[in-house]
Write a structure and sequence with these properties.
By secondary structure, the chain is α/β, with parallel strands linked by helices. Among the domains are: 268 residues, Rhopdopsin 7-helix transmembrane proteins; 105 residues, no CATH class; 223 residues, SET domain (Beta-clip-like). The chain has 21 helices and 25 strands. The strands form nine sheets. A five-stranded mixed sheet has the order 12-17-19-18-25. Strands 13-22-23-16 form a four-stranded mixed sheet, with no helix packed on it. A three-stranded antiparallel sheet has the order 7-8-9. The longest helix is centred in the N-terminal third of the chain and has 30 residues. It is elongated and about 135 Å long.
């Protein structure tokens, strides 16, 4: 069956452009109308590009939207080209059809993106089933239901994808056959391949429609309110129109339904009808799609139990749970001090001094720092001899990027860090030199003076790297990763959350036409991507509650009205942003503290008073850090007890030192302050549940480091009820000699704070310095009415010059009560009142106080300690035996702040 005869003035062939315009010059205005529609569609698309660039800072979602909405101007432009250049009709049809086939797949990707990724979609749709009957056809109504799983979704996507593959293959086959004059467009005769190709395209289009329909039916119930039906219609209508229209017109042409009237042939007339109608139809659908795709999608229902925020519109807070402390990240390089804790202040909000390392050859436009790794963590390609110096691992675009929050030390070994200087100007800046001093890095001048470093004298040239100043924060790095589709473990950007869209904190607030708007800082995006979002879009209730509490507190502080204003002042908004950033830094510090601790009690951090962040030069440790020249001798023997409390052998470990067991069966101390405590050690036969193992188990209670409201700095409060005589914490720090303590004491006095604790149980030889290395006891404040008491404890080391300092409760402590102990401060007798200690005095000190601060003493005032403390008191102690009452009186006077010289004078007046 062939097409109708030729009635054209131009012949049976498709005319050229100049021939076409010469014929229609009197009716040219009719063909300018579709051109106007095409130009309007293009202008609308460009406006939509600007709209989505402004309102969707989420790169993948934005690309999917623009790809789908770009389908209509593509059809319009290709059809107008086919109208004006008739012989390009086949090529234009192929381009538009191929673009539309890919758009079908992109639309499925958009729906998947609404779920937060394919894995999350499978999790939500698990157990769901979909009917296989394709409306309006009911021939499949008896088939079994299709279960939604990875396989079935894969088949649906394959059904959609095959249309673009089939169309591409058939187009090239058509070109080959047409070149060999074996293909005639529009000829429906059985001898012409055109009929079979149209049949194949029809079947392929139906399969694509069927797969798309099943995918829509499977997902529409899980995404209520997303307008999937309207979006689905915008896509499928184009598929139906383009597929059916061309087939209907070819059939009408073959059946001579299309009239054969000059000046065009039947083939040319059907082609003009098709492209003219496509432009008008696409213009109408474009207007509808523009309205549909601009609607804000709501959040997923809470019934799905989403813990991470799916994309656009699903704004969920990811908060740190109070029950389980979740560490933010693991530092793969357990660097300085053996703590394995990354510095929470580096690469954070104040990143002026942060440095990063660039691989110029591979990633010159990606300012990511590289991580120096130890041999057990990575297998470097080049390792020098036994010096333990490793080459930096090289970075490629496809590799995961190692990001650390510390600056790089380029040459390192198992022991102290060494820096081979290359005299580069960026390595001589003051911030780098200060940082080297702080972390104890030894610098080697250029050229290398050490024989071990001679093989890498030209280290920087070999590694092809250099240190440059980097002003990027973690948010900026995460944003670059997401925009460039790069996975980064250290930044917590992976394939599961690379498209996630999460509220980090709220920056500002305003009311507009009875609608509350919040300025949202998106996690992983820079502040330049902040957007105003209506209250109904935000599901982060905890963040909103915290934001309003901060806002009301700040407005009360500035004596403003506390009702919600229409717009916040800039200074109030700035304070709220700083508080949100501070809360993040404290959460990171809290996570690092809990990652470092080895005790069962958790640590929480809270600052609702000011904007002070974590201490910058403080490392959390669990046990003593031994200074240079000091040795802690381990125990050689232990007890042989099976039950140290009920059946001690030889008095157990305390009996071996001529003392009694210090604890009850419930682990509460029962000896008076001043008597030493001897616990079972690692050589003992008893198990970890032995009643004589208390201090060595670590802090048993949850504690909170909080900022005090009366100017005493940081403090510590109990989060659980603590019974009387219960172990609470241990005072740890760096053990140094008394001579070194004197040197540091002068420096600390100039700085206005001291954390020196003399270990003078027997003789004043060693001191604990908790200024830069310590545990939570570093933050415990002083009180003259304390609830903690100091005890000397010996476990694995029996050297009486090096006791462990344990703090036990002196009375029941309520949950929420601040923990304090007596610093035993000594004051100058400025007046009569100066002999009484200020209960609000903290370790940081008060600049205007007349009291003179000395080192904290660990005295329990045995007779030997009293004899060594003062010459006159020593003389009196040698001439007569001090009674228990006198000793107790000395303890009370010394606690009240009286010096030993004053005590000796009073002893000499006769009451002793």
């Amino acid at each position: 069956m062939r097409r109708g005869g030729n009635c054209s003035w131009l012949g049976a062939e498709i005319p050229l452009s100049w021939e076409f315009f010469s014929v229609i010059k009197d009716e040219l205005w009719l063909f300018l109308i579709p051109a106007g529609f095409a130009v309007i569609m293009l202008a609308l698309f460009l406006e939509e590009v600007g709209f989505f660039l402004r309102h969707v800072p989420y790169s993948r979602r934005r690309c999917l939207y623009l790809w789908i909405l770009g389908m209509y101007p593509v059809f319009g432009l290709t059809s107008i080209i086919a109208l004006y250049v008739p012989r390009s009709s086949s090529l234009c049809n192929f381009i538009a059809s191929l673009y539309h086939s890919i758009t079908l797949l992109k639309f499925m990707g958009l729906i998947t993106d609404f779920f937060g990724g394919k894995a999350r979609m499978l999790e939500i749709l698990a157990g769901e089933q979909v009917s296989p009957d394709p409306f309006p056809c009911c021939c499949c109504c008896c088939l079994p239901m299709i279960a939604i799983n990875r396989t079935s979704l894969g088949w649906m996507m394959a059904a959609v994808l095959q249309l673009s593959v089939v169309r591409t293959i058939l187009f090239f086959v058509t070109l080959v056959l047409w070149t060999d004059e074996q293909y005639d467009y529009g000829d429906m005769d059985s001898a012409n391949p055109n009929m079979y190709m149209n049949a194949i395209i029809g079947v392929s289009t139906f399969l694509s429609f069927y797969g798309h329909l099943l995918f829509y039916k499977a997902t529409k119930k899980a995404l209520p309110g997303y307008g999937l039906r309207a979006k689905f219609v915008c896509i499928i209508v184009v598929l139906v129109l383009c597929g059916l229209q061309s087939g209907i017109l070819e059939t009408m042409e073959a059946l001579e339904v299309v009239p054969c009237t000059p000046p065009f042939s039947v083939l040319m007339r059907s082609q003009l009808i098709y492209h003219y109608s496509v432009i008008v139809e696409m213009f109408c659908i474009c207007l509808f799609a523009r309205h549909t795709f601009r609607k804000v999608e709501p959040s997923l229902e809470e019934g799905f139990g989403l813990e991470e925020r799916p994309p656009r519109g699903m704004l969920v807070e990811k908060a740190v749970q109070t029950e389980d402390v979740v560490p933010l990240r693991e530092n793969p390089w357990p660097g300085w001090g053996g703590t394995g804790v990354s510095n929470p202040d580096c690469n954070s909000d104040s990143s002026e001094d942060s440095l990063c390392k660039i691989e110029h050859a591979a990633l010159d436009r990606f300012p990511f720092p590289l991580q120096p790794r130890r041999q057990e963590t990575v297998r470097p390609e080049n390792v020098t001899d036994e010096s333990g110096i490793l080459e930096m691992p090289k970075l490629t675009v496809n590799a995961d990027i190692n990001v650390v929050e510390t600056r790089d030390v380029t040459v390192f070994g198992e022991g102290p860090f060494l820096f081979q200087h290359d005299n580069a100007p960026m390595h001589k800046v003051r911030s780098i030199q200060k940082w080297f001093v702080e972390i104890g890095v030894e610098e080697l001048d250029w050229p290398a003076q050490s024989p071990d470093l001679n093989p890498i004298e030209h280290l920087w040239d070999e590694l092809e790297r250099q240190l440059i100043s980097c002003k990027l924060s973690l948010d900026d790095l995460q944003a670059v990763c997401r925009q460039e589709r790069l996975h980064c473990k250290e930044l917590q950007v992976n394939k599961h959350n690379i498209d996630d869209y999460e509220v980090e904190y709220l920056c500002d607030y305003k009311k507009s036409k009875e609608q509350e708007l919040y300025l949202v800082k998106w996690k992983g995006y820079p502040e330049s991507a902040n957007t105003w979002e209506p209250r109904k879009n935000l599901k982060c209730k905890k963040l909103m509650t915290q934001f309003h509490e901060d806002m009301e507190r700040e407005m009360r502080r500035q004596k403003r009205r506390t009702t919600c204003p229409k717009r916040l002042d800039k200074d109030v908004a700035w304070i709220l942003v700083q508080k949100a950033k501070l809360r993040q830094r404290l959460q990171r510090w809290e996570a690092d503290l809990n990652k470092t601790r080895n005790h069962p009690g958790r640590i929480f951090v809270l600052n609702e008073v000011d904007l002070d962040g974590p201490p910058r030069d403080f490392t959390y440790i669990n046990t003593y850090k031994v200074g240079e020249g000091i040795v802690l001798n381990e125990m050689a023997v232990g007890c042989e007890c099976k039950d140290c409390f009920s059946d001690p052998v030889g008095g157990c470990c305390p009996g071996a030192s001529l003392h009694r067991l210090a604890y009850t069966d419930k682990g509460q101390v029962r000896v008076r302050a001043g008597e030493p405590i001897y616990e079972c050690n690692t050589r003992c036969s008893c198990g970890p549940d032995c009643p004589n193992r208390v201090v060595q188990k670590g802090i048993p209670f949850d504690l909170c480091i909080f900022k005090t409201e009366n100017g005493r700095g940081w403090g510590v409060r109990a989060l659980q009820h603590i019974k009387k005589n219960t172990f609470v914490m241990e005072y740890v720090g760096e053990i140094i000699t008394s001579d070194e303590a004197e040197k540091r004491g002068h420096l600390y006095d100039r700085q206005g704070a001291t954390y020196l604790f003399d270990l003078d149980y027997v003789e004043d030889v060693y001191t604990v310095d908790a200024a830069h290395h310590g545990n939570i006891s570093h933050f415990v404040n002083h009180s003259c009415n304390p609830n903690l008491q100091v005890y000397n404890v010996f476990i694995d080391n029996l050297d009486e010059r090096l006791p462990r300092i344990a703090l036990f409760s002196t009375r029941p402590i309520r949950a929420g009560e601040e923990l304090t102990f007596d610093y035993k401060m000594q004051v100058d007798p400025v007046d009569a009142e100066s002999t009484r200690m200020d209960s609000n005095f903290s370790l940081v000190g008060l600049p205007s106080s007349p009291k003179k601060r000395i080192r904290v003493e660990c005295r329990h005032l045995s007779t030997e300690a009293i004899n060594q403390s003062d010459s006159k008191l020593s003389t009196m102690a040698k001439t007569k035996e001090l009674s228990k009452d006198v000793r107790d009186k000395i303890v009370d006077l010394h606690k009240a702040g009286m010096g030993y010289k004053t005590i000796a004078k009073q002893l000499g007046t006769g009451w002793g």
